[in-house]
Amino acid sequence: MPDAFRPFVPETLEVAEPAPVVEGSPDAVLVRRTMSAIGSVSDKVTSYFYALLFVRHPDLRPLFPPAMDAQRDRLLKALLTAAEHIDNTPVLVGYLQNLGRGHRKYGTRPEHYPAVGECLIEALAKYAASVWDKETEAAWVRTYTTISQVMIDAAAVDELRAPAWWQAEIVSHELRTQDIAVLTVRPDQPYPFLAGQYASLETPWWPRIWRHYSFASAPRSDGLLSFHVKAVPAGWVSNALVHRAQPGDVIRLGPPAGSMTIDHTRDSGLLCLGGGTGIAPIKALVEDVAEHGARRRMEVFYGARTDHDLYDIDTMLRLKQSHSWLEVRPVVDKDGLLQLPDAIRTFGPWTEYDAYISGPVGMIRSGVNALRGAGIPKERIRHDSVAELVAAG
Ligand SMILES: NC(=O)C1=CN([C@@H]2O[C@H](COP(=O)(O)OP(=O)(O)OC[C@H]3O[C@@H](n4cnc5c(N)ncnc54)[C@H](O)[C@@H]3O)[C@@H](O)[C@H]2O)C=CC1
């Protein structure tokens, strides 16, 4: 469909904005009633679920990180979010297929799913006792069976065409500021992806802890991949990548994911907002447009707290010099009075543009508001899932 933006299927369902479904199938109603009942004790459900799982199935313990506190409830949260959206089939199927493919890198096998389902349902029965009955249990069994089957099938299809993970050797490590590094890695086998996507990444120093990083370049003929990493407080993986990693170290990569990609069948202008290291996928998108040879108007707003934090401005200005269709506007915060999304209001009109936003979660949220205020409809604004970014810390 050349003239329409392909429907945006988020990689992760937005927990903050559940589908506005009040009614639904009988199973969905029972599932949602359970979810409301556990609302205030969800931490207890999580602890009990993992305790059951690891006591009954100790062989599953090595699939999870040694320290479970940081992301212990990611699996459970994903399952519960999926269950809550069980009636929203098109979005749910895309989400679950991605989840199933993404779980291959943890070593998840089809036979693990019943074990997880049994502990999930037992934990729910305990903490939603006030609303739990035979029908509710049957609804959860059906819902979980549907969810797990989509994940298992997607993993099986993926197994035929791609490895569960890739090893990648760091070939260059460049410290751009005290806490931002640009890393280039060489995967051990071809790594197909699209500009604007991201990968999950595991370092040798924090086994089984995976974090998402956007590719900072479009696919290259030499097969190398690059990432921009900022060391954030208490960020184990990011600190290791910035302050410890060196050329020669080997990391692991999960499969590419994300739908912040360009539809090259369209010819509308592209408005891009990149905040901090969020400029990385925007740079990849610029390279992607350059390679496709189409002279689409592209306007990049690159935001940072200070001049010094515009760590990739030289690259962006070089790209601007080489491409007449590209405009790059650095936006430095003015004592908190002007932030990146505000800057687009001075320019425009933007109604005919497709928009891309990448950066801190607060910036994505206010960026979406600013873009919608500038007349760009929601379905033409792309960004990675806020829920996923929050989970990634
Ligand atoms: N695909 C994506 O969406 C990507 C997201 N990121 C995320 O981007 C973030 C980058 O962090 P830093 O470099 O420390 O960014 P930062 O905190 O230095 O902020 C960068 C820019 O965003 C603006 N900003 C920050 N919070 C805002 C808010 N609440 N409302 C409006 N504008 C706001 C700032 O004014 C600044 O211009 C990380 O959290 C990283 O996870 C990084 C790469 C890709």
CATH architecture title of the largest domain: Orthogonal Bundle
**Helix content bin:** 25-40%
Number of helices: 12
Q: Provide the low-confidence segments as ranges.
A: 1-21, 389-393
For this structure, the quaternary state is single chain
Question: What gap, in angstroms, lies between the N and C termini?
Answer: 37 Å
Structural class: alpha/beta
The CATH superfamily of the largest domain turns out to be: Globins
- What overall geometry do the principal axes of the alpha carbons give? globular
> How many individual domains?
3
Order of strands across the widest beta sheet? 4-3-6-1-2-5
Q: DSSP strand (E) fraction?
A: 15-25%
